[in-house]
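Hi support team,

I submitted a single chain yesterday and got back a structure, but I'm not sure I'm reading the token output correctly. Could someone confirm the output below corresponds to the sequence I sent? I've pasted both exactly as they appear in my results page.

Thanks,
R.
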Amino acid sequence: MNATTTIDEQKLQAFMNQAVGDMGAAANAALILLGDQLGLYKAMHGAGPLTPGALAGKTGTHERYVREWLSAQAASGYVTYNAADGSFTLPAEQGLALAVEDSPCFIPGAYQIMRSLMMDEPKIREAFKSGAGVGWHEHSQCLFTGTERFFRPNYAANLISAWIPALDGVQAKLERGARVADVGCGHGASTILMAQAFPRSHFWGFDYHEPSIVCARAAAGKAGVGDRVTFETAASKEYPGAGYDLVTFFDCLHDMGDPVGAAEHVRSTLAPEGSWMIVEPFANDKLEDNLTPVGRVFYAASTMICTPASLAQEVGLGLGAQAGEGRLRGVVTKAGFTRFRRAAETPFNLILEARA
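Hi R., thanks for writing in. Yes, this is the structure output for that exact sequence:
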């Protein structure tokens, strides 16, 4: 420390308090995974007060472990504790977030993503030094599963009810029968939701990651839409077909090494007056306006997943998950699109529409 440096003790204490809170949050991430994977949250949801022994009995787990887990959950504010009888309760609000898979605020998938961040940190550390990229396919399996579980509730809550109606004339086309390409579809959550809502339309889901396409095909069959959904392994600049009335990119354009090239390919595959829906993480154009709790999550994910993925590909533009509407507009218009607008937004997403 420089001899002339003056330490403000109050500021130091405030930061240390923040750091301790962050330590608790980081440590609790593993416990949230346990609660999710062992069915502890689901067993508590709607069950009222439970003792550790009762919860262990409901879930086939060991009481001593469960007691310690519940104590940590109570210290985190995830469950409440009744000292009079030693019972713990999962409040209904926390239950919606932790136990109800089809709730729009279901979050355990996010912690599977966080597990992958820790598991893959050595790869990213080396990339920091070399400047090389780390492709999506090089990450741990929990990233792929977690991404689908985390994003699906948000899509289920907004895609059919709000985002598609916000596009210019697209809902009517889908209701009549349209051709749709969902690029970067992952495990197919967005593709399947659209297929379920618009049975007269046909959907093609494309992703370069073959294991994800395998999962998507299985999910489509389970959902009963396999007759009108086709999943194929293809990159964003190479997916086949033409005359699509709608092309969708869900939370993936910023991951691409050459987003301008991808946008040019989209334009070449759209039908006349076709629409391109681009769903991206919410971001303002200036970094200082993104220094928020949501921005904190997105910048962390971008450091560990999105930017390395882009740098692993040709061009390697590295937009990052906080690109903002201005930079995205630049990508789209450079590819030859003449119409671009923000159709809708949520606290977590920008929903953009582009037309040639």
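A quick pointer for reading it: Strands lie at 80-82, 87-89, 179-183, 202-207, 229-233, 244-250, 270-281, 339-345, 349-355. Let us know if anything else looks off.

Best,
Support desk
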